[in-house]
Design brief:
The protein has about 350 residues and is an alpha/beta fold. It has 2 domains: about 200 residues, Isopropylmalate Dehydrogenase, CATH 3.40.718; about 140 residues, Isopropylmalate Dehydrogenase (3-Layer(aba) Sandwich). Helix content is about 40%, strand content about 20%. The chain has 12 helices and 12 strands. The chain has a 10-stranded mixed sheet with strand order 2-1-3-12-11-4-5-10-8-9, with helices on both faces. Strand 8, helix 7 and strand 9 form a beta-alpha-beta unit. It binds 3-isopropylmalic acid and manganese (II) ion. 3-isopropylmalic acid binds next to helix 4.
């Protein structure tokens, strides 16, 4: 089969980590007899520099015409002072929205060998971390009405958290369906003790839970969830939550695994086309130094293989190769816990060798 993949390397370390994932995909293609056709487009800060806008028409069109999108990272200090609608991050939000990618899957799994890189206390780490955050991605505060005005205390600004039943149902279904293939537990995270939008969220998830009697469903307030992730992370299987809460909790969860440089994500909508990206940012401070960890992007490519292309065996081979290389003791700087480390490109090479 031939698959058309649009690459959006973006800014900072984006290009180097996307290179790593492309090398791995090519190796998978050679081994399993698939052809991956790549088209590279600009989005984010580099697009602002070239076209004056973060998400050029052509980039969006290429994404819409692709079988899937692989994104590195966007943003950097150079573009931090631009107005909201011109910031690099708009590119990401625009692709998510225009492609209808409402479900963001962010798995966080602690590998035994990396327990030393995790800030968790040894006895907590020993109980394991293997959870999946299902984050709603095209609604909530990120996309609600916003603006600025004047109030009694001077200028004010607002963003609005708004969720419809339909949006909650469709993300809830993704969570329950995914839980069926994993540990059969869904924990819905909200702030229903304060927010009306969370009360609708909770009611809707409860109604949906009745359709999935084989999946255990619970609720947790987001502040408590933030605490439980540190205190007792092994209790979680699938966590489903809003766009904003999911953004925050997934960064927290990533740290439990040792490094945000290991965490992959998939963004999906109704069809098979998705966008795949590491959950970390563009790390401008280390861009071009060759030390960025390519694993999160490589694992994102693996998610593309299984979730968008139905190539489960191939995806599994990539995941196994990453595990093998980490088990062999190879470390990039972010997971070296102060010890010896190898460059990102060398990490990629070893993963391909293990494949
Ligand atoms: C993420 C990022 C983005 C988000 C930013 C860059 C817009 O933090 O993918 O988690 O907030 O969704
Ligand atoms: Mn984030």
């Amino acid at each position: 089969m031939t698959y058309r993949i649009v690459l959006v390397p973006g800014d900072g370390i984006g290009p180097e980590i996307v290179d790593g994932a492309v090398a791995v995909l090519n190796a998978v293609g050679a081994k399993f007899g698939h052809t991956f056709r790549f088209e590279t487009v600009l989005a984010g800060g580099c697009a602002i520099d070239t076209f004056g806008v973060p998400l050029p028409e052509e980039t969006l069109k290429a994404c819409l015409d692709s079988d899937s999108v692989l994104l590195g990272a966007v943003g950097g200090p150079k573009w931090d002072t631009l107005p909201g609608h011109l910031r690099p991050e708009r590119a990401l939000l625009g692709i998510r929205k225009e492609l209808g990618l409402y479900a963001n899957l962010r798995p966080a799994k602690l590998q035994k060998e990396l327990a030393a890189a995790s800030p968790l206390r040894a006895d907590i780490a020993a109980r394991g971390v293997d959870l999946l955050i299902v984050r709603e991605l095209t609604g909530g505060m990120y996309f609600g009405p916003r603006g600025r005005g004047q109030g009694e205390m001077g200028e004010n600004a607002y963003d609005t958290e708004i969720y419809s039943k339909g949006e909650i149902l469709r993300i809830g279904r993704v969570a329950f369906e995914t839980a069926r293939k994993r540990g059969k537990k869904v924990c819905s995270v909200d702030k229903a003790n304060v927010l009306e939008s969370s009360r609708l969220w909770r009611e809707t998830i409860h109604a949906l839970a009745a359709e999935y009697p084989d999946v255990a469903c619970s609720d947790m307030l987001v502040d408590n969830a933030a605490m439980q992730l540190i205190q007792n992370p092994s209790q979680f299987d699938v966590m489903v939550t809003s766009n904003l809460f999911g953004d925050i909790l997934s960064d927290e969860a990533s740290q439990l695994t040792g490094s945000i440089g290991l965490l992959a994500s998939a963004s999906l909508g109704e069809g098979t086309r998705g966008m795949y990206e590491p959950i970390h940012g563009s790390a401008p401070d280390i861009a071009g130094l060759g030390i960025a960890n390519p694993i999160a992007t490589i694992l994102s490519a693996a998610m593309m293989l299984s979730l968008s292309f139905g190539l489960a065996e191939e995806a599994n081979a990539v995941e196994k190769a990453v595990e093998t290389v980490l088990a062999s003791g190879a470390r990039t700087k972010d997971i070296a816990a102060g010890g010896a480390f190898i460059p990102g490109a060398e990490m990629t090479r070893r993963i391909i060798e293990a494949l």
